[in-house]
């Protein structure tokens, strides 16, 4: 009887320990509440080797490194992407995005300012060009002292409560403004985005 009771207690303890491991969205202390996903340039829309946004920016290799990006040759050049709202997102929490970019220029007093615009949509809704700015915009980002070093901008923040699960965001990333940096003579690449959200706590 004592052995049976001990065995039952061990089974209960094992089940209690295993249960959270089988629930990835369970409110566990060992699972981060924030999810940060990298969206590479390859997910952006382009035809052949050219983007379909303003300026039709071209795909190009970065300094024979075997890495390709979207080359922005003028302010106002942009690239477009469709991003589905994750199924485990907390809809009452903000969404944050930052731009990953690089340049061959190395003057740390020069800056580039990127802009993110979006349009909310979904299946059964008409597609429309992104026209809404984030509630918190990206600030000017300085060149780094080493050429083609990967830069991450500050975050554009879209306030909570604007999207539902199943929505699709039509998003554009634009080289909005520069100071000192000349994209016509220097090389400026868009490499992708970070998309950050809070997972739902169940």
Short description:
8% of the residues lie in helices and 39% in strands.
Question: What do you see in this structure?
Answer:
The protein is built from 1 helix and 14 strands. The chain starts with a helix and ends with a strand. It is mainly beta and 202 residues long.
Question: What attributes does this structure have?
Answer:
five-stranded antiparallel β-sheet; Jelly Rolls; 8% helix; 2 domains; mainly beta; 202 residues; globular
Query: Would you tell me the structural class of the helices and strands?
Result: mainly beta
- Assign the CATH architecture of the largest domain: Sandwich
* H/E element sequence: HEEEEEEEEEEEEEE
Number of domains: 2
Beta-strand residue fraction: 35-45%
CATH superfamily of the largest domain: Galactose-binding domain-like
